[in-house]
Write a structure and sequence with these properties.
Layout (H helix, E strand, L loop, with lengths): L7 H13 L2 E2 L11 E2 L5 H28 L21 E2 L3 E2 L18
Antiparallel strand pairs: 1-2, 3-4
Helix pairs in contact: 1-2
Length: 116
């Protein structure tokens, strides 16, 4: 497929389809199909699959932007910019409280060094 053939709808369909695929596990070298693991269908499982789809979508967009910059803008509309990631799928912490990324999230109270 060429980058010129991409549409926002096609990327959106791919993102939604990827979020519904079952969890993949290590596959043996001689296997014909990728191995998957059945997981219980629940809110947390859906959130995890959507978070994975968001990470892969981010990589895809970076790849497309890089290709766009290397080819002097062969696709004028850049339809991948209109596809947004799933919302509210960041990690859960302590029974349902959500955290997002940031430098403050890993700051636990630690004993201070006594070498001062």
């Amino acid at each position: 497929m060429l980058v010129e053939d991409l549409t926002a709808e096609r990327i959106l369909r791919w993102r939604n389809q990827h979020a519904s695929w079952p969890k993949r596990v290590h596959t043996k070298a001689h296997a014909v199909r990728p191995a998957t693991k059945e997981t219980p269908d629940g809110d947390d499982t859906r959130r995890k699959r959507r978070a994975t789809a968001n990470r892969i979508l981010t990589i895809l967009k970076a790849l497309l932007n890089h290709a766009f910059s290397r080819t002097a803008g062969s696709h004028p509309t850049r339809p991948w910019r209109r596809v947004k990631p799933f919302g509210k799928v960041e990690r859960r912490l302590f029974g349902g409280a959500r955290i997002s990324s940031g430098p403050w999230r890993n700051r636990a109270k630690r004993p201070r060094s006594r070498l001062r």
